[in-house]
Amino acid sequence: MKLFVDNLTNVDFSYLHPHRGLLGESWLVQLVLDGRLNDQGMICDFGIVKKAVKAWMDRHIDHALLVPTGMPRLNHRQQDDETLIEWRYPDGRLFRCRSPHQAITLVGEPEISEHSLASWCRDQLLALFPGEVQGLELAFVPERIEGAFYHYSHGLHQHDGNCQRIAHGHRSRIEIHLNDQRDEALESVWAERLRDIYIGTRSHLVDDSEGLHHYRYRAPGEFELQLPSECCYLIDTESTVEQIARHLADAIKREHPGERVRVRAYEGVGKGAIATA
């Protein structure tokens, strides 16, 4: 007998890709439990399943930086309450992140994919359930997007929750309207400009020498990130989705001063902000 839960939750996170570097992602979580029926005629109560899996995902995956420990050119160190990651792009450029332990998840795989991450999570999740549950199938599924989208990472210094982590991210669609008409060509232009980007807040930038951007803040705990400047897009405000939408609307308005501009900017799956200019 099997019990399934489609779209149990979705996770927004960033991870290190062996070629593209820091990459924001958003995946839906699908779950199938295999087992025998208990005295209530159930494998496991749906409420227990959803609560347990979502809590585990929130703690280990959602709004975290996932680092595959088997990837080449990687050094990682944990000491006191911090994790330090240092990695080199194939061309030698530096990526460095220092954060509290809970902001970085070390994944014992050579790289992060839907399949490798599901495999890594599976055994740890199985221990959460009662003995009637004898097997578990887990799948991470990217949202199906027709049209332009981009991967971005950011950190929200002033956020009370896990969004404060300096390197977490999303895979997000973008919709742009000029004079109430959707402009898919312009959407593609902006999606390409923001491809695999870190959206940095100018006040968090402490150094931009030698082709690198170095960000730092306390929120609480010390957060620090260093990566190539060409992988960054600076804005003057916190990088909330509301401020991103406003920034994009204003930037598009400057390029199209005679047009009415409306931007629908997404933050992962099914949520976002609308700004006009």
UniProtKB/TrEMBL annotation:
Q: Which reaction does this enzyme catalyse, per its entry?
A: 7,8-dihydroneopterin 3'-triphosphate + H2O = 6-carboxy-5,6,7,8-tetrahydropterin + triphosphate + acetaldehyde + 2 H(+)
Give the enzyme class: lyase
What pathway does the annotation place this protein in? Answer: Purine metabolism; 7-cyano-7-deazaguanine biosynthesis
Pfam families linked to this entry? PTPS
Report the EC number(s), separated by commas if there are several: 4.1.2.50
- What does the sequence similarity comment in the record state about its family? Belongs to the PTPS family. QueD subfamily.
In Swiss-Prot or TrEMBL terms, this protein is called 6-carboxy-5,6,7,8-tetrahydropterin synthase
